[in-house]
């Protein structure tokens, strides 16, 4: 992608005032791209391992290694996408070309994963996931950076993150609705279930990309931007020096690890431990419905107490919920439903707040160095997401497999099922506890950030 042309967008994005905020309709249009991007995440984590294990006979150990390798590849590539996006020069802006190219790759890879041919091999799965995560990075990193550049207001960024989170949750609601319905009328038809979810993703990708790319103009790249981006070692040093960014990165890694373990084992627990095979997709659907309702609730709490305090509170709630899962017993449907819905209400707090905090950290970095590295910081943040998911799948699936659990077997021993439940409950509980601990003493609160923004605005006015 060319990096030597000056941008032609002279118009800056509409600045949010403290009273009016960004136009709701345009913000809703911008957030639509989160729908197809997020829609594949839970199916790939929750349904795809079980589908490829049961339909094509790929072992849990092989699946764990494939997912671990692919997520680590994504974590390695993301910083380069972030740096190149920050340095890109084109008449379309810095973010748009990457999003458009990534959408094409993402669509092709989604079709390969959700509509596989007969006789799939581990090599086929590995190549499809390689392309999927490349396309995902090309969309997600510039998109997150752009979302942090639309407004510099502390609470308005929380509002933007809330719109994006709600759009993600709505897409997950749609993509989970089909397998829930299919399980009621065609139980056991895994191919139909995967095809339905893939169809939702592909059908929403093109219109969502169109709406997002036209929602807001991009702000001109900062004039101090150097034409040559930093190398790998310099990039790693830049990230390592940002202590607050490292806190957010590792906190999010813990969050995604907990969510990944829970997601990878959820269908197995409901189907084999709880002996409720028809309830798995329906429970996940209900969880995401409650997750949609929780987005505005957490946004309201954050306005009162601040982002990092809200994130800590949400993570501690998750710790209690996950430890309570140890009380589950076969047939305890009421407790399972209650804990699943509670997770839906709590799960969005960390994801939402941490994403909004990255843009604040990028502002402080720009004030201190004069360099705009928003996309780089979001790419580093995405490393935590992929590394957390990689570790979750790479640890959870081989661990329960080593304990004797086999999803293709007609029966599993009580000991294997008990280990399945323990990993499902304790792993996420400890991860959310670590996430909360990492956010203690976070210093970039609303008052500090407002001082940063005032100084940035003063410098911009002086330059103008």
From TrEMBL:
Tree of life domain: Bacteria
Annotated transmembrane regions: 50-69, 97-115, 121-139, 160-182, 194-216, 244-273, 279-299, 311-329, 375-403, 415-439
Keyword list, A-Z: Membrane, Transmembrane, Transmembrane helix
Record flagged with keyword Transmembrane helix: yes
Name recorded for this polypeptide: MFS transporter
Keyword presence, Membrane: yes
Protein family according to the UniProt entry: Belongs to the sodium:galactoside symporter (TC 2.A.2) family.
InterPro entries (alphabetical): MFS_2, MFS_trans_sf
SUPFAM superfamilies (UniProt xref): MFS general substrate transporter
